[in-house]
Amino acid sequence: MSAHVPAPIALTCGEPSGIGPEIAAKAWAELGATLPFFWIGDEGHLPRGVPTVRIAAPRDAAHAALSGLPVLHHPFAAAALPGRPDPANAAAVISAIARGVDLVRDGSAGALCTGPIHKKALKDGAAFAYPGHTEYLAALAGVERVVMMLACDALKVVPATIHIPVAEVPAALDRARLYDTLRITHAALIRDFGIQSPRIAVAGLNPHAGEGGTMGREEIDTIIPVLDALRAEGIGLLGPLSADTMFHAGARAGYDAAVAMYHDQALIPIKTLDFSGGVNVTLGLPFIRTSPDHGTAFDIAGQGRADATSLIAALRMAERMARARAAAA
To answer: Is the pLDDT of residue 2 over 50?
Structure first.
């Protein structure tokens, strides 16, 4: 591959009893060979009648995609029954992820896109020791701190705290966490999105960004000192801003990404702007990782109803990020 043409994208199968196999097939049907990717999973788990081409190596994906969904076969222990995850398949779900990481780290794949997993199924079947996909990927990469970004064409937003109760956010939102979140986000915008001088908008935690301390002191005690320190390093930051006025179209035109203080403050605006097309991006890894912003959807698995929009967006974003990273190398 030339410096500006990345290797094909590796798409891991995720939980085979969910909608992952169906949306992988739909993604190939729309993208074909225009965006080469290959699916790591058991060929027998794909919907019946889907054209597939078993490949020996990722480099074969571009040619194979002309005829069918390129499959890097990864055998599983059991069949996939829609909506009914089998513990016997848990170990293979995990090893498919690890295989994808190996391929993207050795350059055989340009980026990693992951199909949705079901954490309980992995714990029940293989004693999966991680809270989720992201933590497992960080462990495989030997990285202590990663950042979750949700992205669509209209908005890139990062929550500084994620899956914790709102009551625990103020204590969790310390200076070190916020500093790391902003540094990782800034570096990723340059390296993976090709934005040379990123502008990052930072929300306050409290209404009206604390209104000078009358509605809370987290802005004064935590957020502002971090922003001042990073501005002194040359990072372009706006804020802390009142979260209720920073996500309309005019405000979004003034920045490249936003950092919010907690889960819903970040996810409500992006899901309102583009519910189906949002992409989950993990920043801070030594490789590119995207995923669709939804779960396994067991309730509709196997019915042909699954919407592949988010997966297609995740593959397209992975490809753009891979090109940006290759161009910057």
So the answer is: no
Whether the link from the prior residue into 240 is cis, omega within 30° of 0, is: yes
Give dist(CA 95, CA 91) in Å, integer: 6
Question: What is the set of domains in the chain, with CATH numbers?
Answer: 1-145+277-329 (3.40.718.10), 154-273 (3.40.718.10)
H or E element at residue 169: helix 169-172
The secondary structure of residue 281, as a DSSP letter, is: E
- Give the whole-angstrom CA distance, residue 282 versus residue 288: 7
**CB-side neighbour CA atoms (13 Å) of 302:** 13
Predicted TM-score (pTM) of the model is 0.94
Checking if the pLDDT of 200 tops 80, the result is yes
**85: nearest Cα among 128, 114, 116, 118:** 118
Binding-site residues sit at 133-134, 163, 208, 263, 271, 280, 289
Which residue type, as a one-letter code, is found at position 275?
A: F
Contact call for residues 39 and 72 (beta carbons, < 8 A): yes
What are the tens digits of pLDDT across the range 236-279? Answer: 999 999 999 999 999 999 999 999 999 999 999 999 999 989 99
- Say if CB 118 and CB 13 are below 8 A apart: no
Task: Report the binding-site residues for substrate.
Answer: 133-134, 271, 280, 289
Tokens 């990404």 found at: 257
What mean pLDDT is reported for the chain?
95
Annotated binding site for a divalent metal cation: 163, 208, 263
